[in-house]
Structure formats: structure tokens, C-alpha cells
Amino acid sequence: MRSDASGPDADADARLAEQRSGIAIRELDDMRSLAAVQRLYEAVWRTGPAGTPVTADLLRALAKSGNPVFGAFDGDELLGACFGFCSPPDTANFHSHIAGVTAGAQGRSIGLALKLRQRAWALGRGMRTMTWTFDPLIRRNAVFNLAKLGAEPVEYLTDFYGQMDDDVNRGDASDRLLVRWHLDRPLPPHREQAVPPPPEAIRIPVPADVETLRLDDPLRAAGWRLDLRRELGARMAAGASVIGFARDGHYLVVPAAASAASAAPPATAPTPAEKQETP
Predict the structure, then answer these.
(1) Are 236 and 153 in contact (CB under 8 A)?
(2) What does the pLDDT read at residue 194?
(3) Which residues contact 243 (CB under 8 A, 6 or more apart)?
(4) Lowest-confidence region among 63-72, 150-159, 249-258
(5) SS3 label, residue 93
(6) 135-168 burial string, b = 16+ CB within 10 Å, else e?
(7) Do 61 and 20 form a contact (C-beta atoms < 8 A)?
(8) pLDDT-derived band of residue 279, with 50, 70 and 90 as boundaries?
(9) Burial class (CB in 10 A: 0-12, 13-18, 19+), 279
(10) Where are the beta strands (DSSP E) in the chain?
């Protein structure tokens, strides 16, 4: 993929990702298509209509108000979908709320294609960042969001959505990691190569497959949740920075003191009164 994320190149990145995945992404706004998105989400999260992650009528309202709902199609078959909404204009941010891909289409990088299409859409409308949340215990999502896309964790959110009534999240606290993706930055180069962390980095592990662990040993899965909340959540609340995620299953965290030292301006930096801010 091209490394320059300016508008036309972002479109090229999105088109190339679609071609590699063998899908076509379309923006959806009719009730029949949006009802199909609702059913897809119910299948991915294994819910019934009463516990659906989002209803078709809400998706219709979002689409009508200018917030895109994208569907990934192989021919006429819907394999994945994503949607989000714009933050207040002064933030220049788009919030991606839900993205899902059917189980049979896993491994085709359809999630990447959807994310890059959202990126191109947002950049084309003057936005510079995208935010979303994900379960920090799910290793594959951490790899995708941090290592593959280069999104930056900004906040640990404890039990953010409360109790969730779906087969993926039921019985577990809904802790989430809020990440911010700088859309106009190049995509991470050499994403398959491990990058050695600085010596002060702390390695915080997550299980290989917490979703299976929740089914087989819910008490042990709950222990992982509390451990991660303490080890990662408390450190982030104290000012530590997450600098990446190692593919062997560890968050790489730089303590608050080291983060502050690396962010400190040089001795020759101008005083606040002299500094010119760039919008």
C-alpha cells in the first residue's frame, strides 16, 4: 500500500485493499441493505433481534444525517460492514463505532479494507483522526489496531458499556481501550517485522484466545480481565503510554516518568509566550 495518506492516496489504499480482499465496498442507505447489516451483526455477536448491536432504523438515521454505513460485498453476498459518526466539528475526528465480518470470511483482510474505506471517507471531508474502542483482552484486535494500523491507545475505559447481552461479551465486564488513529500519517512500514521496545518498556500479557477461555473457564477469564485492568488500566491512568503491541501477545508500556522525559522539550525550546501554535 502507498504510504502517503493524502486524499487521493487514501482512496488508492482503500481500492487496493478491496481488490486484495476480493470484495467491493459500497455505502448503504436503503432499509433492505441496512437490515442485512443488522442481521450480519447479530450473527457475528450471536444475538437475537432483541439484543441486536444496532437496529436498521438507527442505521438509516445515521446514513441520512451524513454518517456513512459501509458494506463489503462478494457479489451480492454481504460479508462485512462498518459504521460510525462524526465528532464535534472542532475536533476534526470521526468515531468508528462497530465493524464486523462474518466468520466464513475471516482471513481475507476485509476488516482492513473497511477501515481504509472509512479513512478515505473521513480524510476527504477534512477529518484528521479516527477513534474507536476495542476489548484489550482480544489479542488479534490489539495486533490489528496497534501493530497493523498504528492507532495509539489514549484511554483505558473500565466497564465502558456495562453488561452486554451477547454471546461474545456476556458474563464479562466491558472494559475497552480507546484508540486514536492519525489518518494523515503513513501506514506503519514493515508491519510483519517485530520492533524492539526501549529498555524501560513494561510487557503486559494477554491470553491467546480469551473468547474461548470465557466459555471453557470463565473464572480464569475474569481473572485476566482484573489483571489487565490493574496492570494496563492503572498505569495508563497514571500517565503511562502504550507504545505498541508485540505479536507474541504483550502490550508495550512506557511508565509515566519515562513518557514525560521523552516528551520534554529541548532546552532551546521557546517559552509558551513565544511559541506559535499551528492549527
Answers:
(1) yes
(2) 58
(3) 197, 198, 201, 252, 253, 254
(4) 249-258
(5) strand
(6) bbbbbeebbbbbbbbbbbbeebeeebeeebebee
(7) no
(8) very low
(9) exposed
(10) 24-27, 69-74, 77-86, 93-101, 129-134, 152-157, 176-182, 202-205, 241-246, 250-254
Grid cell locating 123: 480524510
What percent of the chain is predicted at pLDDT more than 70? 86
What band does 151 get if pLDDT is binned at 50, 70 and 90?
A: very high
The partner residues of 242 in beta bridges, in order of sequence, read: 253
DSSP for 135-186, written as a single string = -TT-HHHHIIIIIIS--EEEEEETTTT-S--STTTTTS---EEEEEEETTSP
The DSSP symbol for 197 reads P
Q: What is the amino acid identity at position 216?
A: D
Please state, in angstroms and rounded to a whole number, the distance separating the CA atoms of residues 277 and 180: 21
Look at the block and give the residue holding cell 472542532.
90
Residue 182 has pLDDT above 50, yes or no: yes
Average pLDDT across the chain, whole number: 88
- Identify whether the C-beta of residue 150 lies closer than 8 Å to the C-beta of residue 51: no
- Residue 5 pLDDT: 47
All cell numbers assigned to 173: 465486564
1-17 burial code (b ≥16 CB/10 A, e <16) = beeebeeebbbebbbeb
Is 55 in contact with 92 (CB distance < 8 Å)?
A: no
**Cβ pair 246, 194 in contact under 8 A:** yes
Cβ–Cβ under 8 Å, residues 65 and 81: no
One-character DSSP codes across 246-258 = ETTTEEEEE-HHH
pLDDT at position 269, please? 39
| 222 residue type, one letter | A
At 135, the amino acid letter reads D
